Amino acid sequence: MSEVKDVSVVLGQVPTQHMKLNVGPQHPSTHGVLRLVVELEGEIVVDVYPVIGYLHRCFEKVAEQHTYTQVVPYVDRMDYVNSMNNELPYVLGVEKMLGITPSERIQAIRVICAELNRIASHQIAVATFGMDAGAFTPFLYLFRDREKILWVLEKLSGSRLLYNYIRIGGLMRDIYPTFKDDLRDIIKTIRETNAEINNLLNNNKIFVERCANIGILPPDVAINYGCSGPMLRGSGIPFDLRREEPYLIYDKLDFDVCVGSGTVGTVGDSWDRNWVRMLEMEQSLRIIEQAMEMIPDASEDVRAGIPKRIAPKGELYSRAENPKGELGFYIVGDGKPKPVRVKGRSPCYVNLSVIPEISKGYMFADLIIILGSIDIVLGEIDR
Amino acid sequence: MSPNDIYQRLKVEFGDDILSLNEEPGFEPAIKVNPNNIVDIMLFLRDEEGLEFDYPSCLSGVDLGENLGVVYNLYSLKRKHRITIKVEVPKDAPNVPSCELVWRSFDWHEREAYDLLGVNFVGHHNLRRILLPFDWEGHPLRKDYVQPDYFHGMKVQY
Amino acid sequence: MGLLDRLDDPYDIGDNIFLGTIEDVLNWGRSKSDWYMTFGLACCAIEFMAVNAAHYDFMRFGCIPRPSPRQTDFIIISGTVTLKMAERIKRLYEQMAEPKYVLSMGSCSNSGGPYWEDGYHVLKGVDRIIPVDVYIPGCPPRPEAFLDGMVKLQSKIKHQEIFRKRQNMSQADRDAIAQRQVELQKLREEYENWRKEHFDILQQE
After folding, report:
1. How far is Cα C32 from Cα B117, in angstroms, rounded to an integer?
2. Across the strands, what pairs with C102?
3. Which of A296, C47, C58, C108 could crosslink C80 through cysteines, CB 3.0-4.6 Å?
4. Would you write out chain B's pLDDT as a tens digit for each of its 158 residues?
5. How many Å apart are CA A229 and CA C119, to the nearest integer?
6. CATH code, domain carrying A151
7. Cβ separation B140–C120 shorter than 8 A
8. Which chain A residues have a beta carbon less than 8 Å from that of C41?
9. CA nearest B112: which of A84, C46, A345?
């Protein structure tokens, strides 16, 4: 009778090879056209190599051929889930180069639009993250509430998704008469739905088991990689551009900077990043309530401050806090109506480059969770 | 620290490699440096007590007519100050030492500057095209770029 | 009484018997249960997700999302098609089984969209690589516009001829199709040769 060998000894002698799996540009759960070449050893991820560029729409070349005002719709289409936040750093940068400051009423309306879009973007982030983990109901609930925000913004600017509303020197048009009542309805509804989603998704044992301790991002790695937004705050660093370099009227508003603190796992895991987004939605509602009070009822001509000829001379790097992180524009102008160079520094581009670092050693299904928690939008990565 | 203080600090340490400081109104305060010693300058900016630029904001390539420029935007989370470093290289020999090991974020930013402008970062471990297909010819963001007629059998123009 | 004797009686028959051709029945079944492939590229994909969600429910048209191209009837190209992505779209289209349809959503996939003039990497319209059945304009199109496009696709399917076309095709048409197939085969071989030449680079990628 032959001896029964120890199974691990036998398996240790079997020659194995790493498998390269292509999570292709068309895949049910990559958030857009992203291609990941994953090197697997069995089910464990050894290396990840992201391939981007499937949505490269030549934004920077286009921006050199159009005037400063004509670039605003293209800036919209970079991160298409929150267009108002995209327009802000570009418009603020050009206004700073020209030396104009719009009135406080216009700034308050801009803050409200930006915060509404922040809520809409986080709703999509949480909804698709839930779908990656296998939960379909939060998707339906959050999209139902997102429709209400989109209806208000449609009444305000005319379009549901890509607004072209914030212009250099002012806005496209003034608010409509029942704007504040609509906002009060939205605030009430979103607070209820958020409580529901917390119950259904975030505190759900299955979801917690799926997301806790997955994709831990240490704070010093996050800073060295230049991560920003919920990725940085989920690792415990309270850095928010609305507090550090206040723009518009954020220095007069009272809100908290939401930080992840390892409630159900380690600090900096995927559940923390998701939780930071849920908390930020509540803070955005607080900001909207305060900014609403700062809009006087008397209407003014919001297009009065728009200059007739926009041809700034100078170079500026202006940045603002996008829902995904720090969106920056490096604008170079030489006194002509068209810019020389507009470089968009997108937060998702930098956040995605962390993926090879934080996903080694996890299983393949966890890689999808990590990708969902980074919350990428390909339009911004590829520009 | 103000940009002038940072400029004086760098001048003390590196002497002739630091060329000039531009502080005109309307322009972001920028320090122009010699590209040859850029990695040491960046390490000094990151590690030196009092400067501590630990957060890389942005790296952009610019086409300046006859030269290619690279602009580094840096920010410090601890000291809350920011600075811009500029480098200029001629178009026929656009070699800049790579800073990807100083801040890991510049890994992808340098690949993009190479892809769209043709700046060659010496010492980068994986300098390949990142946004355009791997067999694309030319560097589109240069001012003298002409669109190709056909790519893989598909007509490019409208 | 037999079935045919009851045909003239309005009260007995009710709505239990329909008379029609096989084509009508087949087309009715095909148009009311189109399964589509989830293929979102850019901003129009967000609008498309909103159409799928609860308010402008898309599944009530009988359309269920399937992730694999082999199990779908039609593909919705929503978003900008770049040159890098175009080859993959062509491959996905070829993987779908006949009869298949293409819905081009948004102005980027109709004709290049806002990037028509200066976009060096944007394909000016997805109909340069695959045949499109319905174009939906808009940037992004409203959900109601999208549903209108879907209704047009359904009516197009309902009025398709399945059987007669094959019998009525003339010999000249058939010759032309055969010759075109030969030309396409030559082009495919050329492309394969070119691809094998550069295979090393592909393996490193």
Report:
1. 51
2. C75
3. C108
4. 788 888 888 888 887 777 777 777 778 888 888 888 888 888 888 888 888 888 999 999 998 888 899 999 999 988 888 889 999 999 888 899 998 889 989 999 999 999 999 999 998 988 889 999 988 988 998 888 888 888 888 888 88
5. 30
6. 1.10.645.10
7. yes
8. 32-33, 55
9. A345
Which residue carries 């010819």 as its tokens?
Answer: B137
* Count of domains observed in chain A: 1
pTM, two decimal places: 0.87
Q: Note whether A172 and C76 are within 8 A (CB).
A: no
Which other chains touch chain A, taking contact as 3+ CB pairs less than 8 Å apart? B, C
Residue A35 lies in a domain: no
What is the C-alpha to C-alpha distance for residues A132 and B105, in angstroms, rounded to an integer? 27
Query: Which of A22, A55, A164, A383 to mutate: most C Cβ within 10 Å?
Result: A55
The size of chain C, in residues, is 205
How large is the ipTM? 0.92
Q: Is residue A312 part of a domain?
A: yes
Of A315, A326, A349, which has the smallest distance from its Cβ to B28's Cβ? A315
Residue of A nearest to B69 (CA): A341
Q: What angle do CA B21, A61, A335 make, to 5 degrees?
A: 50
User: How big is the B-C interface in CB pairs under 8 Å?
Assistant: 35
- Whether A214 maps to a domain, the answer reads yes
SS3 A109: helix
* Class for the domain spanning B3-155: alpha beta
Provide the CA A115 distance to its chain's centre, in angstroms: 12
* Structural domain for A274, as ranges: 67-343
- Bond before C67 cis per omega within 30 degrees: no
